[in-house]
């Protein structure tokens, strides 16, 4: 599964034209953004985004103007691995309308504790910094997209 890198300021994407890395700031993910090098319009993130730590996660859910679909998962979890392609489909299909974020509960256990994640995979939808919906278990892409659209 491929995931995009992120930090506390935005998602790091490669320009499809010149290959340079660009940071798409979270608060601007619903706007047209151009490459800082060649000025090509950059597509909205169409892959899941990795939340490397709790601070980056907090910034993502608070500043992103579109619904944030958060997958709480762990690398050893078979059902989590089964759902990974579904999340890739959701990220691609909903690019610009929702952001898919992956939280590895082994790497960032404080988020699993804070949100009382009792089983994985668990999907939570955040809008304007607050959790608005949650489901546990493997879901097909269509169900995840419907969940995000309701947010």
Detailed description of the structure:
It is a single chain. The radius of gyration is 15 Å and the shape is globular. The longest helix has 16 residues, at 78-93. Helix 2 crosses helix 4 (141-150). It is an alpha+beta fold. It has a single domain (44-150), classed as 3-Layer(aba) Sandwich (Glutaredoxin). 28% of the residues lie in helices and 28% in strands. The chain has a 5-stranded mixed sheet, with helices on both faces. A 3-stranded antiparallel sheet has the order 1-2-3, with no helix packed on it. It contains 4 helices and 10 strands, in the order E-E-E-E-E-E-H-E-H-E-H-E-E-H. The mean pLDDT is 94.
Q: According to CATH, what is the class? A: Alpha Beta
Count of the separate structural domains: 1
Number of strands: 10
What fraction, in percent, of the residue positions are helical? 25-40%
Strand content: 25-35%
CATH homologous superfamily grouping = Glutaredoxin
State the shape.
globular
Short structural summary:
With 151 residues, this protein is α+β, with helices and mostly antiparallel strands. It has helices spanning 54-63, 78-93, 109-114, 141-150, and strands at residues 5-6, 10-14, 21-25, 33-34, 41-42, 49-50, 68-73, 99-104, 122-127, 130-136.
Topology of this protein?
Layout: E1 5-6, E2 10-14, E3 21-25, E4 33-34, E5 41-42, E6 49-50, H1 54-63, E7 68-73, H2 78-93, E8 99-104, H3 109-114, E9 122-127, E10 130-136, H4 141-150
Parallel strand pairs: 6-8, 7-8
Antiparallel strand pairs: 1-2, 2-3, 4-5, 7-9, 9-10
